[in-house]
Amino acid sequence: MEVAADRSEDRSDAGLDAAVRRHQAWLVGRIALVVGDREEARDLAQQTFVRAAERWPIGDDEAVARWLAVVGVRLAISERRRRRRWGFLPIEMADSTWALDTDPDLWEALATLDRRTRAALVLTVLEGYSQDEVAEALGVPRGTLASWLSRARTRLRATLEERE
After folding, report:
1. Same domain for 19 and 89?
2. Which of 6, 59, 68, 85: disulfide with 63, CB 3.0–4.6 Å?
3. What pTM does this model have?
């Protein structure tokens, strides 16, 4: 009986290790879009994986990705709140070259959005979640989320058109 439990635990650990390898890079990138700092995003992604380990197994690969995205963005938002509440220096784009190389105008335009709007945009546009799912994850009514997204698109469009 002990041998069967050990094998099951080994498979579970292997599944978590595979999930970390498969999802870490994009999770750090998504969190960095919210916090604006690559190193801070790595720390928050690590915290997300620690929470995943506490709940493992979470489900199939799609469920794992969804869970990681929601928890990671929530941790990023909480960290921003904590820093503001306790008067820490704001998180800056200390290592933004990775983002600037891909599309500097878009990165700079995203940085002008408030954290909630940026999180909503990341989850709906980049992660493909529905507005209902994101509204539930962020704890706001769907209409509020739709309003954030509409204003974000308008603001991004205006900001990017100015740069052309």
Report:
1. yes
2. 59
3. 0.53
